[in-house]
Amino acid sequence: MGTENHFGIGFRDNKVGHHYGFYMNDFVGAETKYWFGIWNGGYTALAGSWGEDGNYKDAEDWNTMKVVIKGFHFELYINNKLLKRVEDKGKTFKSGPVALVSDKNVKEAVAQFDYVKIEGDGIPMAVSSVGKLAVSWANIKYAH
């Protein structure tokens, strides 16, 4: 991750870039480390931005972000510590895909994401490997 950027999780995206977002901030000297709100052409704070440590590690180190969603109630975690409980009383976004975000603010940003897990009622299970490249290649190698 470069400096002076933010990165994190966007979810319930409406396919034109409007979504809920939970981000970590690595701005040098920043008073805020976290943001949670709605991006809909502008930023609407739901939890605002806040600076308490919350188990935050350096942006160059691995951090674990987690959002638990129950309807329009959200629990925000960093490194397994609950930071905030938030409700969207406006019920802005009911559904939509999840995004992993690395947002260039001042300098180029590269973030790495590993072990992404999405679970819950109505969420499809793992993708079938039948007919996929790895399986097809294995079948070709086995046949010859």
Describe the structure.
The radius of gyration is 18 Å and the shape is globular. By secondary structure, it is mainly beta. It has a single domain (6-118), classed as Sandwich (Jelly Rolls). It has a 5-stranded antiparallel beta sheet, with no helix packed on it. It has a 3-stranded antiparallel beta sheet with strand order 5-6-7, with no helix packed on it. It is built from 1 helix and 8 strands.
Brief digest:
With 144 residues, the chain is mostly beta strands. The chain has a single domain (6-118), classed as Exo-inulinase, domain 1 (Jelly Rolls), CATH 2.60.120.560. The protein has one helix at 133-143; strands at 6-11, 19-25, 34-39, 43-50, 65-70, 73-78, 81-87, 98-103.
Blueprint of the fold:
Blueprint: E1 6-11, E2 19-25, E3 34-39, E4 43-50, E5 65-70, E6 73-78, E7 81-87, E8 98-103, H1 133-143
Antiparallel strand pairs: 1-2, 1-8, 2-3, 3-4, 5-6, 6-7
**By helix and strand content, what is the structural category?**
mainly beta
- Rg, please? 18 Å
Tell me the fraction of residues in β-strands, as a range.
Answer: 35-45%
For the biggest sheet, the summary is: 5 strands, antiparallel
CATH topology: Jelly Rolls
Give the strand order, joined by hyphens, for the main sheet: 4-3-2-1-8
CATH architecture: Sandwich
> Residue-averaged pLDDT, rounded?
80
> What's the helical proportion of residues?
under 10%
Uncertain segments are none
The sequence of SSEs as H and E is: EEEEEEEEH
State the shape.
Answer: globular
Query: How many H/I helices?
Result: 1
Note the gap between the termini.
Answer: 44 Å
